[in-house]
Amino acid sequence: MSSLRSFVRLNPEFVALQANTEQAGRALACAYSSSAEFDAALIAARRAAGVYGPKRHRKQMLATVAAIAAALAVIVFLIV
Would you place residue 31 in the very low, low, confident or very high pLDDT band (cuts 50, 70, 90)? Predict the structure, then answer.
């Protein structure tokens, strides 16, 4: 074990590797405090980019389907 400690103290490559590891750990630190906060930011960014599309298309489709169903109900009522 003492030979490993002396190797660590005398080897500059190991010291540089250790410093790079600590620096990489700081670089990978997350800016969000929780996964829920990260998910909310991700969804907001995707909405701003237009990934999900506007909701009015869904509402228009639902209104069209309801109008067609009402028209069919009137036609069936008139036939019977």
Answer: confident
